[in-house]
Amino acid sequence: MSILLRIRRGLSALGVLLLVSVVSYRMLTGKSWLDSVYFFVITASTVGYSEESSATAPVQLLTIAIIATSSVVVAYTIGLIIQSMVEGQINLALGVMRMTREIQQMSGHTVICGYGRIGQTLAEELSLRKSEFVVVERDQDAAREAADAGYLVVAADATDEETLVEAGVPRAKTLIVALHGDAENVFLTLTARNLSPDLRIIARGELPSTEKKLRQAGANEVVLPAVIGARRMAAMVTRPYAAEMMDHFSNHERIDAGLEELTLPEGNGLVGQTVREVAARQRHNLLVVGIRRADGLMVFNPDPDSPLESSDTLIVLGNVQDIRTFQATHGL
Length: 332
Description:
Elements lengths: L2 H27 L3 H12 L12 H48 L5 E4 L3 H12 L4 E4 L3 H9 L3 E3 L6 H6 L7 E4 L4 H14 L4 E5 L5 H8 L3 E3 L1 H14 L1 H11 L6 E7 L11 H4 L1 H5 L2 E6 L5 E3 L12 E7 H11 L2
Parallel strand pairs: 1-2, 1-4, 2-3, 4-5, 5-6
Antiparallel strand pairs: 7-10, 8-9, 8-10
Keywords: Ion channel, Ion transport, Membrane, Transmembrane, Transmembrane helix, Transport
Membrane topology: Multi-pass membrane protein
Subcellular location: Cell membrane
C-alpha cells in the first residue's frame, strides 16, 4: 500500500472519529454543536477538563474511548506524514546520487544546456536515437520535468564552471548551448571552451549579430532559429513539395525514413570498394547521397566509381529499418 493511500485512510479514520464523537457528545449531553466539537478537541488532545470530572458515567466512558482511539489515530496519521516527508527527501537525495554516478561514468556524451522548448525537442530527438546526454537546467520546475521524463539532469546554473564539470563537459563530445539570452549563451560558450579545447559546441543565437560573438567565444556552429524558420517558410512558398519532403525526413512520426551518417572504421570490409560495388541501392534500398572524407571534404552525389576510404562517413537516405540492416551487415 502506498504511503499516500495510508495517509488518506488515516485522515479518513480521524474524520469518522470526529463525526461520531461530536454527534455522541451532543446526544448524551444535549450541548450545542460548538460545545460538542470543543469537547472532542480537548479530549482528543488529552488536555482534559479538570482534576475531577462532573460528567455522567456514559459521557465518561465515551471520553475514555475517544481518548484511546484518537491517540492511536492521530499518532498513526502524523507518523505517516512525517514518514512521507522523510522518504521524499531520502528518495530525492538517492536520485541525485544515482544521476551523479551515471554522469561521472559517461564519456563522449552530449550536454544540453537549457530545457526550454529547444532543449526539450533536442532531448526527445537524442533519446529517440539512443544517444547519451545530460540536461543542465537551473529552473527547478523545468529540471524536475526533465527528470520525470527519465533524463539525466544537473539542476544548476549552466554558466557556472563547476556545473559544467559536474555535467561532464570535459569528457563530453558535444555541448548544446540553448539558454534564453544571447549574453548568457556567449558567456557559457566561452566558459565551456576554456574547459575543453576539443569540445564541439553548437550554440543558439537570437540575433544575427550574435553569431560572430558566439564563434569568437569558441562555438563551432551557430544556429539562429529565427533565420532558419524564415528560410523554412520561404521554401514552403517557393518549393512547397521539396519542403514537404524535407519535413517528412525530420519528422519521424510522418515517415519511417531519414538521413543517417555511417563512418567506416579502419579495416571495415567496405574500405577500398567503390560506391557502385557497395550496391546500397540494389541490396538495401538505400541511396548514398554524400560522402564526408576524413580530411573534411564533403562530396555530394558521389561518382559511382569513387572508392571508399577509412574514416569516410557515408550519408545515406532510406527507410530506418533498411539503414539498421545495412549497419548490421557491414558492422557499422
